[in-house]
Each structure stands twice: as C-alpha cells, then as structure tokens.
Amino acid sequence: MVCKDNKSMKYSKRMFYAKPRFNQKFTGAQRIKPFYLTAPLCAFMIIILLVTCKSIPVMPDSFLKNERFLPLETGASVYLVANVVTARCILDLLPIEELKDNQAKDLLDRTGYAVAALFPEESGKRFQLCAWGNYPSFRAGFAFTFDKNWKKQRSSSGDSYWHSAQSGLSIALTSEQAFAASSLNRTPADPLSGQAGKEIPEGFNDFRAGSPVSFWLEEPDKVISRLFDAAGIPIQFPVKHLFVNIIPIENNYEADICFLLENTSQTRGMAAILNLASRHMAGDSDSIIAMLFFANPSVQKDRSLNLKSAVLDENNIRMLFNIFFRI
C-alpha cells in the first residue's frame, strides 16, 4: 500500500526507551453496549482506524547509529534492523505469516524503522518486534476493546498490551512506537519485556550504513559449519560475528556478508579457503550457498572478511532467510 501523505515526523532520543503510555481511560465509549459490535464490524473498525490519516514517517539516515542496545529480549538467534520505508519489498519475503496479516501490513505502512528478534524453536518464542512510526494508539485501543478476539494483558514492565489467542500475536502501541511479539505456544508473548535491551555487536552499525535491511547471527560459527558441511567443506571456522546486508539493485538484490574472526591470522586462513573453494563452486546457479559465499573473491580487512553475493532474485532471498533464520 503506497502512502501519498508526506507528513514528516521528528524523532528524539527519548523515544528509544520512552515509557509507553497505554492505560488511557475511556469515558463515554465505555458505556457503549458491546453486543452492538459484531466480530466482522470489530475487524472492520480496526482496519479503518489504522488506515485513516496514514502517513509514512521520514527517518533520519543516522537513526539508531549511535545506539548500543536494541529494545529487544536476549536469547534470539537472529537480530534484524530495517528501514521499513525502503525495505518493504524485502520484508514482504520474510517467511513470517503474522506479517502477512492485513492489520500487520497497515502497521508497517505507518512505520519508519523497525528492529526484530527471531528466536530458536526450543525457546517457545517466535519473534519480537519494536517499530518507530506514526500510530493511532488511542483509536486502536478503542477498537481492540470491542473485539472479542483481543484481550488486555499485564506486561512484566507494569504496562498493558493486547493479545489475540487466535493468532498468537501480542501488540502494544504508543503514538510513536509499536511493539509486537508471538510465541509458539498458548502462553501470551509479552511484547514489552525487552526494554532492558540487547547489546549491538561492535562494528554492526558501521557495517549496515546505507542498507535497508541488515541482520546479525548470535551463534554464527554453528551456522557457518552447517552451511559449509552442506557445501562439502567440513572445516570449523571460529567466526565471532556474522553480519548481512540485503540491498535492492534494479529488480533484484545483492547480499553483503561480513565475517568477523578472533584475529588476522584466522581471517587470512579463512580467506584462502573461501577463495580456493570459489574457483570450483562459482557459477553454480543451483546452489544458494555458492551464490552467497563463492560467487566473488573475499576481501580481508584486519579481522573482518567481506563477501559480495551473486545477483539474487526474490526466490533466492527467501532461501537466504530460510538458511540463516531456520524458520
């Protein structure tokens, strides 16, 4: 959905950890008898309230650049940062069904920037998201009140949020921030439980500069070993960090990949192995691993090793998400 309202928004430092104000008191609206609002009418009301007066926030290029923490829980396997205004074509390829819901799409239309955490299956959690934008928090809360599929829950932070047992999704809104979370079981996921923050790895903010979508892996050595085993390279690499940028180019995409190792000698060794393997695997258009890691020579800079993928189409991006996120 394209927004034609160019109304800009101002972002300040206080919004990053601003205490949400969710507990607005309803007066006259509370006296409306709920049986007059049928389920279809409730759903229609929520969509109308989200769509009305929609505007796309204008995000400064330096947004989050100097932050050391993201307002997300620890324990995830992947952490993602996205400029939603320029990254919608990429985010639409994420294999997360909750983001394909009409209400979720309308929320994304109001979002300028978002950060997300994707959790391993054994955690019982699915994902957590924090977004910055322009949200109708009061009107949405009014609509949620009269939708029987959404129940108000108390967060561990002391504030409240809305949870749908039907979809497994939990949502909390302020006028400037949206919080969402989903679990793999019947226990409501608290979207506000990550306020203490997840520390951003050193070098990640510099690496992602200018990229609409970037993410890092929490246990990259295990992921790389699994991928390289599948490619017939059974070698253990002590990868400390793995960063990925996804960049649109015309009608396709490229992935910039950065390995950060413990020292320069390990980096040189990994560069030699990758460059040797690329001579045998380059041009294998049937292998997403070859397209990601062996399409171009690696470039070493101190402890980091940088790779540029082959040109990727939408299906390749879906495969990239699947092999890195394991979802």
Structure description:
The model is unreliable at 1-54 (pLDDT under 50). The chain is elongated. The strands form two sheets. Strands 5-6-7-8-4-3-2-10-11-12-14-13 form a twelve-stranded antiparallel β-sheet. It has a two-stranded antiparallel ribbon with strand order 1-9. The longest helix is centred in the C-terminal third of the chain and has 18 residues, at 264-281. Helix 1 runs antiparallel to helix 4 (137-145). The chain folds into two domains: 35-198, no CATH class; 201-325, no CATH class. The chain has 327 residues and is an alpha+beta fold. A hairpin with a 2-residue loop joins strand 11 (239-249) and strand 12. It contains nine helices and 14 strands. Helices cover 27% and strands 25% of the residues.
